Description:
This is non-specific protein-tyrosine kinase. Helix content is 32%, strand content 19%. It has twelve helices and twelve strands. A hairpin with a 2-residue loop joins strand 11 (283-286) and strand 12. The longest helix has 18 residues, at 79-96. The model is unreliable at 1-39, 41-54 and 284-299 (pLDDT under 50).
Amino acid sequence: MSIIENALKKAGSQGLVVENGGQESVTINKPNRSGVESNFESSGVKEGSNVFPSEQQVVVDWSSLAENGFIDNNNAKSQLAEEFRVIKRPLVNNIQGAENNGINRSNLILICSSLPGEGKTFVSINLALSIANERDKKVLLIDADVEKPSISKQLGINSPRGLIEYLEDDKVTFSDILLKTDLPNFSLITAGKRHKYSTELLSSQRMYLFAEEVSRRYKDRIVIFDSPPLLVATQAQILAELVGQVVLVIAAEATPQSVVNESVAKLSNCDVVMTLLNKTRKEIDIYGHNYSYGKYGHL
């Protein structure tokens, strides 16, 4: 029995555990949370709009990303690119079948881990890049790890305002913090400044309305939140209540079974929880091809 099978044994009673492309996933159903009617203040957003308002253009440091082991946009056939094609498929399928499977806000995905250093930010960025490279998918990546943000640094992007500024000041609009990258279909919101009441801001009504609006108004977009580790800060559990899908990144042969069990328990109220075994050094046979996850996730 593998480390993940052992780790999720306790969670078996909470939902259906299935094999999925070399990963294991846990699906947990709960009643849908009622929607809230509101608007993005002064943003000029219209219901069903297919374009972001007043996009601010930024350029990603693609060479630095490739050097640090992220997906290389110049090599669409790399092993890493293929691995994330497998990883994203069940998430995308859940979004496409949301009306039938009852997943509320299925286009909002939270990437988290139990502890620091398990590779959640690596997964967040690569998952966003992989989905953005599809012809009919648009991605918004939000750095919600407000205590230790790293996405803007990894992408080589600077922004004077981010999520914290939006939550703190109702005069800051959605369009003020939205960044459009030079990769078509890929937009970004940075974490913003450090704030001593960041947990309270993330648990505020304004944050809930933000999640509700971005999910409902941009149904053709997939929103990925990179969150703090679950067992280090309470913010991840707060954010998990706002999204339809959660990916729990687990460092192979490093994260204790008891730690994984505790994280799964904290996510028990989420509609869908999938686990991603990262940094494993053994090859996994997927559709007749051997894939190794040992080459990435070391941040």
